[in-house]
Structure prediction request, 446 residues.
Amino acid sequence: MSGFSLASFKLQVRHAGVGLLLAMTATPVHAQLAMVDEPRPANIRLQTTDEGVVFADSRGMTLYFGDDSKPGVSSCTSKVYRQGVTGNGDLYDLANYDRVPSCIEKWPPAQAGDAKPAGPWTIIERPDGIRQWAYRSRPIYTSIKDDKPGVANAGAISGRGGRTRGQAVFAPVIVPPEVRVETLGVSRILASSEGRTLYVSEKDAVGKSACDAKCATVWQPLAAPAAATAKGDWSIVVRSDRTKQWAFKGKPLYTYSEDDNAGEVRGEANPGWTVAMAYSKPKLPAFMTVQATALGKRYADANGKTMYYFTCGSKLNTDDGIERSLACDDPGDKSLWWTTDCTNEKNCADTWRPVLADEQAKPEGSTWTIVEMPLPWSPVRTLNSDQLSIRVWAYKGRPLFTYKFEDRPGMIEGQRIGIYTLTDWLSISAEGEIGPTKVKAGIASR
Prediction:
């Protein structure tokens, strides 16, 4: 391929006098599931995000679970760890920071202050004097990735290295015991109690299943107990064999026989079958497309090229012998790790190409936003007032890129490029979106 240049991008470059831009549109309106009526403290509020209703602190900042291993005990402290652990158990110095931050700098504990426990909300008396909230015995935090109410950027953390911090604390909703709500990419979907994805069929009429006995060997109806009764959006379909099946908003629910594990969505490759959505998905920017890949549907740019974001997380060598995770892709972190796969900034800028937003482009909710990224570009944004910058589309605050070595729609060669247990380039699942249903091109070699 030919070399890549800034000029070929036709960039509109500006001075970065205002730092990071995370503009948002109005808070989205969801077709809400009925929520569980449970007590909560006075300084804990409900906050609507693109993915549904979450618990938030008194400022409206999203609350998250940590990766704490013991109920009622927070492992996130002010202690600074300076060594990481590789996948092979080898130690290395955390050279990705001028000053290694502590966990509570990145994940500030949700402070109870003078509030009193209520219902499932209890208080952890920490050694540092902070009274920290715990929800159902799990310590609760906010994230420095979020800069305003209604944002849940930390929920995008995923990939290798055990980076399990960042699960937003969603307000509990009323669902049958056989159903739970899961996060899949930008979507909140319905799953069975075992975590298997639930689907609906376009052939089914409201309140009636067209999936006969042969069909039901591939698409297993979600069985409802004999004593189950309809409530709210949840109803009962009586099948031809007189068994009962759960339906959501009148549409019968099924699992797919070839989904071997929780979270798989192989069923969407079948025409007429779609993932059962718990909430409406965030609106897509006009330029964005949905492409079928060897790994399922993925969000892509206007040319059909898969879009990726960068993640980075260190496994820490702690003095108690328990590995802890610490992200290294937060605003203000040094951008050393992203060059490790492509050797230097010049090669990286040629390999990973920003998805530019023009001057008229506007964000969609808090999921698809626009950030000001400095030149030369880097996925971790640290802007100084004298730097030049470009406007780049972002997923939950993370700049989006395409991969140089993909030259046609449906390719997904950039997925999971990185250093084992440390860095990742990840695509974004588009299951549930209208788009291609068969893989036309592309291979997944990583």
Observations:
- Residues 372 and 391 are 5 Å apart (CA to CA).
